[in-house]
Design brief:
Layout lengths: L5 H5 L11 E3 L7 E11 L6 E11 L3 E3 L1 H9 L8 H16 L3 E11 L2 E9 L10
Antiparallel strand pairs: 1-4, 2-3, 3-5, 5-6
Length: about 130
């Protein structure tokens, strides 16, 4: 197996990916949850495929993400060598840069490999508690 290097650690962080497009938001005070159950990428060290579910939850401010552009963005990871942790944090960084939400959470639940299931979560901003109506 290839030795772990600094290049492995940084793999996938600077490669060009399709642009996330946005649409103007018409409402306030609501959340959007997007579940992507067929996320795939490659391990930069072993080049074996990784798979899992990516969930993006956010409160839109002035814009929300256009889903077709998100689909193409996520599909671009298919041939990208990137570790789980880097993928989740890069998705959050790119998403926040494009959408500029009030807050966002990106959660990656990766399929078990070698008997280990990994869940990685990255957050931006602070989610405000929802008020219950009586």
């Amino acid at each position: 197996m290839a030795r772990y290097t600094k290049q492995h650690a940084q793999a996938g962080l600077k490669e060009s990916l399709p642009k996330l497009e946005t649409l103007p938001n018409q409402f306030g005070g609501y959340t959007i949850k997007i579940i992507i159950p067929e996320y795939t990428s490659l391990c930069p060290r072993t080049h074996l495929p990784d798979a899992g579910t990516i969930t993006i939850e956010y409160e839109p401010k002035n814009y929300f993400v256009e889903l077709k552009s998100l689909k193409y963005y996520v599909l671009a990871y298919r041939d990208l060598g990137i570790f789980y942790e880097n993928a989740v944090n890069r998705i959050l960084k790119d998403f926040v840069k494009a959408v500029r939400p009030r807050w966002a959470i990106v959660r990656g639940e990766f399929n078990p490999r070698g008997g280990i299931k990994t869940i990685v979560e990255a957050t931006f901003g602070r989610r405000k508690p929802s008020h219950t109506k009586k």
